[in-house]
Design a protein that fits this description.
Layout lengths: L1 E6 L5 H4 L5 H10 L2 H6 L6 E7 L2 E8 L5 H4 L9 E4 L1 H4 L7 E8 L2 E4 L8 E4 L3 H9 L2 H4 L1 E3 L1 E4 L2 E4 L1 E12 L5 E15 L2 H10 L11 E6 L1
Antiparallel strand pairs: 1-3, 1-4, 2-3, 5-12, 5-13, 6-7, 8-12, 9-10, 11-12
Protein name: Type I-E CRISPR-associated protein Cas6/Cse3/CasE
InterPro entries: CRISPR-assoc_prot_Cse3
Pfam family, one: CRISPR_assoc
Length: 218
């Protein structure tokens, strides 16, 4: 696995001209793996957009190494970089604690009579979105660290950003996706499940910048 990053050239009008919606970012990510395109074998690439100190970054977790020239097409020159992620993943173990960041699409499905596939709805409120993540911790191989507040004992994670992102699908149909960024502290309870969550993603809309969790030792 590889972890890659490039600073997005948000001040460069020419480089940003086509990045008007999540689908365009998806295309940017996919085109950064030309060997996969040539071979006709597409792997899943987890990605998200981070804002750090008034700069924006595209972050990617992938099975194969991206082409840095393609990755840098919409980036600040010289900022595209990649490193082997397996070395970090190999050190993950039960009971270790980490600070995490996750950008996800908290949502739920309602089955409809007579239809094979249900309809997906976004969770709207902060409480619903935090509950969505809390309910998945065991399945994902971690647990939240709890802390005492004036409201009582609460898990140590917060929502630091909430937004609606535009995605243009076929025939110019515009869709808005709920995009929520969580940060906090977690403890690993099942290393195998946790590594899968880090490399396979969490929740829906993974192709469009959702589901990527990254961690650093606490």
């Amino acid at each position: 696995m590889y972890l890659s990053r490039v600073e997005i050239a948000v001040q460069d009008v020419q480089r940003m001209r086509s990045l008007t919606h999540l689908g365009a970012y998806h295309d940017w990510v996919e085109k950064s793996f030309p060997d996969e395109i040539e071979a006709g074998v597409r792997k899943r690439h987890l990605w998200r957009i981070d804002r750090l100190n008034d700069k924006y970054y595209l972050l990617i977790v992938s099975e194969n190494k991206p082409d840095l020239d393609h990755l840098g097409i919409h980036g600040v020159p010289g900022t595209a970089m990649t490193k082997i992620y397996d070395n970090f993943l190999a050190k993950i173990a039960e009971k270790k604690t980490y600070r995490f960041r996750l950008t996800a699409n908290p949502s739920y499905k309602v089955m409809q009579p007579g239809k094979k596939n249900g309809r997906v709805y976004p969770h709207i409120t902060v409480a619903q979105q935090k509950k969505w993540l809390a309910e998945r911790q065991e399945k994902l191989g971690f647990e939240f660290i709890f802390r005492e507040t004036v409201q009582g004992t609460v898990p140590s994670f917060e929502i630091v950003d909430r937004d609606w992102k535009i995605l243009r699908r076929k025939k110019s149909r515009k869709v808005e996706l709920s995009c929520v960024t969580f940060e906090g502290i977690i403890r690993v309870t099942d290393a195998k499940k946790f590594k899968k969550a880090l490399t396979s993603g969490i929740g829906r809309e993974k192709a469009y910048g959702m589901g990527l969790m990254t961690v650093i030792p606490n």
